[in-house]
Amino acid sequence: MGTKMHRSSCSIEYYTRGVPLPGxxxxxxxxxxxxxxxxxxxxxxxxxGPIIIEAHTYRYFGHxxxxxxxxxxSRDEVAEVxxxxxxxxxxKEITISQGLLTEDQCKKIDEDIRKSIDEAxxxxxxxxxxxxxxxxxxxxxxxKEVGIRDTIGNRHKHFHAGxxxxxxxxxxxxxxxxxxxxxxxxxxxxxxxxxxMEAIKDVEKGKKSNQKSKSDDKPxxx
Length: 222
Prior knowledge:
This protein is mostly helical and 222 residues long. It has a domain at 13-61 and 71-127 and 168-212. It has helices at 5-8, 31-47, 75-85, 87-97, 103-126, 190-217; strands spanning 23-27, 52-56, 169-171. The chain is extended.
């Protein structure tokens, strides 16, 4: 939990590790950039196929109640991220600078949200304990069938395509709210992927065929 990424992983560019899927990198603390990246990804999967999003975010608090969150990082580091990358502060600055909201309106929104959270917490404290029969009720907004296996009509097979080329990925560190991309802008073609899959399967077939012929050529042991 407290191990640095570069020490626990051979590659910290996680968006490139979905072999053979293409991936994009985006600042997950930037609300508008994240919205834009998600919108782009939806357009991509509808036309081309799966894509991976690596959203770079930062956790302010500990991983759990037993994790103080400061044993593997300094308080100064957390404070610096809060001051420079906080998503709420950033979005507030944008809305005010663009004349969408005033400082007082933002303050009112913050007060209303805090009030609603306090009221919900108080209501939860006063509520009766949930019966065990209701434990699994309304876990999902659209509840699935009891059996999960084979509920999806289309089952997809995944192949390992070996080392993915760098051109299959696009690192969007500059993915800003103004960035406009289309699925075609990612240097990755689904046809190329399909051809790659066929080539891999042909190679595997060839290996098995060669192994079989070699085993057939071996003289029988007496």
